[in-house]
Amino acid sequence: MFNNRQKELLNYILPSAGALCVTYLYNIADGIFVGRGISAMALAAVNITVPFITALVALSTLFAMGGSTVIAIRLGRKDTKGANNAFMCAFLLTLVLSVILMLTGMIFPEQISRLCGGSDNILPLAKEYLFYYTAFSVPFLLSSCFAVFVRNDGAPRLAFAGMCTGAVLNIFLDWLFIFPLKMGLKGAAIASGLGQVFAFIILLSHFIFKKGDLRIKFYVPDLSLIGKIFNRGIPEFLTQLNTPVTALCYNWVLLKTLGDVGVAAFSILSFIYAFAYAILSGTAQGLQPLWGKLFGENNKEGLKQYLNSGIKINLAASVVMVVFLIIFNRQAVEIFTKDAGLINMASGALPVFSVSFVFMALNLIYTAYFYSTKETLKSDIIAINRGVVLKALLIFAVPYIFGVRYIWHAVLLAEIITFGICLFMEKNKIVLKNLLITIL
Questions:
Q1: Local structure of residue 299 (DSSP, 8 states)
Q2: CA-based nearest residue to 47, from 243, 258, 325
Q3: Region 285-291 average pLDDT
């Protein structure tokens, strides 16, 4: 039914997208149980912590994806020792970062929550959630990091299984801690942390039992290798910055225009957006080790085939999601809350907000393709415009120019303009040509 290349494609994309969906499911599960089991204000408090948590996750992604890109290229060149050095370097960088995140979040939860846009009403709840969530920073960041390396080391199914186990446990503990035990936001944060602990243990088994080429062993960091990891990882880091930048800017603007209910409405939209992002980014990240290996082998035909496949898969997935959310916008919002006013606001914004998924799908594919094939400058330009510059600028500018009712159009405009930048950068119109080929 499938040829070898199609089987390889599915073998990497499906577990990658699944693992990312599961990763985001931790926060989505928190949102559902917090919104329905505690209050809309508690839901807004969870969203207030998102900029800080996801900014550090973005930084860890820099190490994970930068390291995995170097690993894939070196494995394509049969350089196992060099690949293992890249793995150990990225692992140690992530470990140091996770300790810094833990200490910062537990010592300064109030200051961080206020900086992220927390009002006096939300601040006590946000501070409590952030304190307990960041207490589990080490297993949280290392499990996400290991999922990438296990996938690159030829075990994408184990990566998926590890993250799934953690997510299932998280969902059960969310229910247990919030409903029967009445632990509130503290319970939601601890449930997420314990889920990550179990995911980390499962993923660690890949290296303990030496199932692939990568090994955990003594390693002295090499500054030149750190530089390579940073260089290859910057585009994915900038792409991941999209979440904290969007959340931070929306929190500030909404608090001043629509108040706490606006922040709560955005928290629901952001949970849905995160799940869509996980699916679409999962395709791009699943293709990354394949692109890296083919680039190392100088296989241009294979690169072109996988690029076209990635475009086609992401376009189809994004269109399906948009159609579903336009038709069932109210039902999707009601999963998170029973508050009628909040449901009306969020469901009204969801259709236009979701259309951005189509352009995001294409932008993510090209960002990943460029950094996987050492065209880092192009991917940097796409990522920094999409994830930082345009999102921040438009979230503040759109409601000021057109009115508050158009605030939810900002993300869509940013994605459209970013795709225009993709077309402009490719003067020979390769992007447009590939897009038309896959559509037709």
A1: -
A2: 243
A3: 78
